[in-house]
Amino acid sequence: MTDTSSRQDRAGPGMPVSVRVATGLLGVLAALLLLSAALTWFGREGVVDRFVLAQPELTREEVTRFVVGGLLRDLVIGVVGATAALWLARRRAWARWTGVAVAAFLGLLTFMSAIGAGGTSALSLLLLVLCVAAVTSLLAKTTAAWAPMRGRG
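and the corresponding structure tokens:
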């Protein structure tokens, strides 16, 4: 690979706005998820204690499994979202579709949680808006043209 083609693989001034928005939103979503996972990990005993007080019919072990499962889910989705953002900037089509899957899954999960809880918080609403904006940017024609399916996939 020549120096010129290596420069073209990196994000540059020719990157469309929709790609910049998509990579930025995926990065923000990933950062929020990774921060949530880290905070949950370091404060998991307190989270478990509050859960057990709110749901006394559940055992501490069940609640711990639930909390750690949610933490791992956030960690995996955050890492995959960050990876998609980084590789989308390098014009990889698979990163575009991975980003769509991450944002759509996270948006659907957030929406279903809000319905299940009977309401939403400001953070959940923000997360939902970010997910919709990310999917919209990733599905834009200019993003599709930036990360074509042939040759780079």
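(Above: one complete record from the training split.) Residues 1-11 have pLDDT under 50 and may be disordered.
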